[in-house]
Amino acid sequence: MADRTVDVLIVGAGLSGINAAYRLQERSPGTTYALLEARDAIGGTWDLFRYPGVRSDSDIFTLSFPFRPWRGEDSIVDGAHIRDYLLDTVRESGIGDHVRVSTKVLAADWSAERARWTVTVTTGRDQVEETYEARFVFFCSGYYDYDAPYDPGFAGVEDFAGRVVHPQFWPEDLDYAGKRVVVVGSGATAITVVPAMAETAAHVTMLQRTPTYVVAQPKQDALGNALRKVLPARAGHLAMRSKNTALQWTFYQACRRLPKQMAGLFRKGAVAGTGSEEVVDAHFTPPYQPWDQRLCISPDGDLFAAIRDGRASVVTGHIDRFVEKGIRLADGEVVEADVVVTATGLALKLLGGTRISLDGTPVDLAHTYAYRATMLSGVPNLAFCIGYINLSWTMRSDMTARLVARIVNRLRDSGADTVTPVIDGTPDSRPLFDMESGYIRRGAHLQPRATSDYPWSMRQNVVVDAWATNRADLDDGLAWSRSARNRTRTSAGTGASA
């Protein structure tokens, strides 16, 4: 079992897991680790999603890693190129030697006496059960369910004569050329799928219950590409990353502080893109303020262009049920379709659904508080990684990876073998992800809690979070201790445990 006993076990080989592994190698040399991935390939989200047009709605300079420059021309990048970037990062950094794919983590149990996690996994096609042991476990598995998307439970699906698909499980054999397509939803996935499918479909209808703010953004960053021609690769990359972070932060603050003015700007942009005030007022004017829910990006205004050209349209209404020829709305209208794409959103699943226990006693994550959005109160030697909702995921995940490396180093150097977040009392709290997006609201009861003050806060503000996290006092909110076995060894003169 020697190859399954490590200092740090990282769960998930997507953006966050690869980032965590790199920072561990860089900042904690000599630390042994393994990177476990449930799927058959690395890449996480960017390997899972294969629907038409799949891309990031964050610019690549802030989504990519600060330590590995993006060299492509586009700023808004498709999923295949992001997946290739991740594969290249793993190969060039040596992280690939530590990755074990087709290895799904089922449970993790902490032994207080031994100060070790025993992690149960299944591996390979035959799902053979194995165990790993680790001093520290770092979950980089995101926060949604890879196995099951959100299902609203539409009535009458079995009556529909066409084909129903979900973007999370896009079928390779789906031929929609020349067919009528209805995409149910108005989030980032729908905004991506509609113009991509409209290139070959007879017509694509985006059927939404509630409008979303959609903002056109250039696919290429002219200033960025000019800067990168005169600066060294790393300097150019970091300059673009800093510029875009500042712009995104300013944009978000403007939306929160001047919502009416920003909503007016978005309306003007949508009218210019679609060429129709009537379309915008009916279908692109949400009943909420900007950034109450996440904004959607349309690269080069591709969604607006598809609507303006007549290749796509939008219908806003409530679904009654599926019928043979399509979808019937509550007002009796039938939106006819040959193919229906249910871009209805994600289902929240924390820590990849792993069962966490302390000496055999299960841990309910909803009864914990999140220490710097990185660890859980009362749970020793365990971290998790989440990204921002209002900025690029990596802006937060890299911050977390560097903090975890600091914590691991102190465990190694201090003689302690246990670090546990401890919160005093039961302060007023809210769910860790505090936004009105559907999948977040539906999963609020599953989330750890957060307060308004550090170290138990996550502000969704990269400036404030970076200041608080990068300068974190590791004695504020964290209790460092030695296990009984470690104390026994020390008193016997053998020194701190490895």
UniProtKB/TrEMBL annotation:
InterPro entries: FAD-binding_MO, FAD/NAD-bd_sf, Flavin_mOase-like. Keywords: FAD, Flavoprotein, Monooxygenase, NADP, Oxidoreductase. GO terms for molecular function: flavin adenine dinucleotide binding; N,N-dimethylaniline monooxygenase activity; NADP binding. It comes from the Bacteria. Its cofactor is FAD. Transmembrane segments: none annotated. Belongs to the FAD-binding monooxygenase family. This is NAD(P)/FAD-dependent oxidoreductase.
